[in-house]
Amino acid sequence: MSHPTHIRRTIARAKQRRGKAPVPLRLADRLADAVAARVGSWRFILIQSGLLAAWILANALIGTEAWDPYPFILLNLVLSFQAAYTAPIIMMSQNRQSELDRDRSVADYQVNLRAEADITLLHEKVDLLREQQLAEITDMLRRALERIDTLEARRREGEQG
User: pTM, whole model, 2 decimals?
Assistant: First the structure.
């Protein structure tokens, strides 16, 4: 029984990929990952919350002479600006991570295919060994029966003669 060709091709591709060195990250990728790691942390949220509270409190206490009086239009502009730049950067990091996850999934699939092919090969070998053993046992039984028949024939000849 031969293995399907898609398994052979997948195994060959896996061997090719295993030999390749990982592609180094570009500066843009490293920056996107760093921004996503910082912005997506509790430390960032706590610091930003503290700064927002301080901004609102300072402007509320100063009153109408404040640099950003209520309804805090400048604060809204700063937060919109921050969101407009951080969201695409985070998306770049997530897209790159998705590509890595896809590559890992393909590698896992290839490992599973290889394991399946190996298990199938082992089953074939075990089946072949069983067939050989069965043939040997059958041959031994056939020879034993022939000996028994010969012995019984001699015994009968001895009783008659």
Answer: 0.58
